[in-house]
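Narrative of accomplishments. A recurring question from our advisory board has been how the design workflow behaves on a single, concrete structure rather than in aggregate. To address it, we present the structure tokens for one chain from the evaluation set, followed by the sequence designed for it. No filtering or post-editing was applied between the two.
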């Protein structure tokens, strides 16, 4: 049976209405604390203090390399930023402009050398890469899924 009770956030102490299941609260922290990455000492540490810390560098399934940097304005919700952005910003000596991306000139996503990166407007960058994708006879992009033909 599900009920709602008032419960205090374990990080900031803010009291809010929380759903319960079998007498246990569904969430122990409020949304603002969970989004900012604030952790209660009994529930583990984040970043370099975590027991699972592997150096702060990771690669996603598309081949982009990410570096852990919570303070960077382009960091995602977990605190990671594309290494290409960091390298290009240091090359330019300024942050990337709004609406701009880091473009790899040789199309290799893991090659983040400064001479291989270029700042491009997002619309121009997306248009350039869209011409590389295969299209059907109607000019539409193919899905990433396998398309099967029906036979009678």
């Amino acid at each position: 049976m599900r009920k709602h009770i008032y419960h205090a956030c374990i990080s900031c102490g803010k009291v809010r209405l929380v759903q319960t299941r079998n007498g246990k609260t569904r969430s122990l922290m409020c949304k603002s604390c969970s989004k900012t990455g604030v952790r209660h000492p009994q529930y583990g540490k984040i970043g370099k203090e975590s027991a699972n810390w592997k150096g702060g560098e990771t690669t996603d399934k598309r081949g982009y390399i990410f570096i852990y940097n919570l303070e960077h304005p382009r960091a995602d919700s977990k605190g990671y930023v594309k290494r290409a952005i960091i390298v290009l910003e240091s090359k330019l000596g300024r942050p990337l402009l709004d609406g701009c991306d880091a473009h790899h000139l040789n199309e290799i996503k893991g090659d983040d050398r400064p001479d291989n990166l270029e700042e491009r407007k997002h619309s121009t960058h997306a248009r350039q890469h869209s011409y590389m994708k295969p299209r059907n006879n109607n000019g539409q992009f193919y899905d990433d899924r396998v398309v099967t033909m029906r036979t009678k």
